[in-house]
Amino acid sequence: MRHSLLRGALVCLLLTPVAAGCVVPPGAGSSDPPVAEVIAADARALAYGRSASEVLENPQLRDKVRALFGGDWAPPSPGGVGKLTLAAPQYFERGGPIRMVHVGDVDYIAITGCAAQACTGRRGLLLVREGGEQLMARLDEGGFLHHYAFGPGQAGGVGRAAAVLDSAVRALARASDGDPYPRPGP
Question: Which residues contact 47 (CB under 8 A, 6 or more apart)?
Answer without folding.
Answer: 109, 132
